[in-house]
Design brief:
Length: 289
């Protein structure tokens, strides 16, 4: 089942021709596409040209109004024309970059996702959080690999070692926002990034992130019973009691009683608090079903 998920997500990326590349490569691709559309005769629709020119206005509020107009028009061309407003190197105002992210979320589609990817490297955490929210609206399951960059980094396992193309976001709040967005998407495609943050080879070092990931997996487990395996594995490899308590609660949410084997393991934990909680949840499941 997990192999199928990897293949499916890989297909999503290939279809969108976005994260078949690293984040840096994708950003260069967007920048090249933008230069092509503005330098090739007829590439920019005549009706959009005035709005595009307004993105160079000296007043941030004028640039914001231009972005709002492009978002209302929508479509791949409008999304690409918003790229300079999304890039910190070409737009100095964080308020304008936030508006660009909001507008791209409304436009939606693969082009908007790629342009939003520029914002994952923004130095302003508020911008990055807005980008994550807009990614969810712009692409739903197609947005998962982008959101995963903020949560787990843009990494590749090659020749027995991890190659880090872009690290996970260094701000706790941004990574928590990534988890919230994955939880809201709430399909099987959200499972792997959450499981990686909870107990993967590069699991998050912050217990608050692992707790949030366990909680999100429990919510998804109401529909996806295979989540129980990830939660059980995480429990067996977790040392923080708060995280283990969260995992126990999430095991109790997984559909079709799939969490019972994991709860039985927790019921034998040397820690009394954990044994009591696991026993309580186990009994509740039997009583409710």
């Amino acid at each position: 089942m997990r192999v199928f998920l990897y293949l499916t997500i890989g297909l999503l990326l290939t279809t969108g021709s976005a994260l078949a590349q690293t984040l840096d490569e994708m950003i260069k691709t967007v920048q090249k596409e933008y230069q092509t559309i503005i330098t090739t005769s007829g590439k920019v629709p005549a009706t959009l040209q005035p709005l595009h020119l307004q993105l160079s206005d000296s007043e941030p509020m004028v640039r914001i109004r231009a972005l709002q107009g492009l978002a209302l028009v929508g479509g791949p061309a409008a999304a690409l024309l918003m790229a300079p407003a999304m890039g910190e190197g070409t737009e100095s105002s964080a308020a304008v970059r936030i508006e660009a992210a909001r507008g791209l979320g409304e436009v939606g589609g693969q082009q908007a996702l790629k342009v939003l990817g520029l914002g994952l490297k923004d130095s302003n955490p508020t911008v990055r959080m807005r980008v994550l929210e807009s990614l969810r609206w712009a692409g739903t399951v197609f947005a998962v690999p982008y959101i995963n960059i903020a949560l787990n980094g843009d990494v590749e396992f090659k020749d027995g070692a991890w190659i880090v193309h872009h690290p996970q976001d260094n701000m706790l709040g941004v990574r928590l926002q990534a988890i919230r967005m994955l939880r809201k998407i709430g399909t099987q495609f959200s499972v792997q990034p959450l499981a990686d943050a909870l107990a993967g080879p590069r699991k998050d070092g912050n217990a608050a992130i692992r707790k949030a990931a366990a909680d999100a997996l429990g919510e998804i487990g109401k529909k996806e019973r295979d989540v129980a395996r990830d939660l059980q594995f995480a429990y067996e490899n977790e040392t923080d009691m708060g995280v283990k308590l969260e995992i126990i609660g999430s095991l109790g949410l997984v559909r079709d009683r799939a969490g019972l084997p994991g709860l039985q393991i927790a019921m034998q934990d040397p820690n009394l608090t954990l044994r009591m909680r696991a026993t309580q949840v186990y009994g509740r499941i039997l009583g409710l079903q």
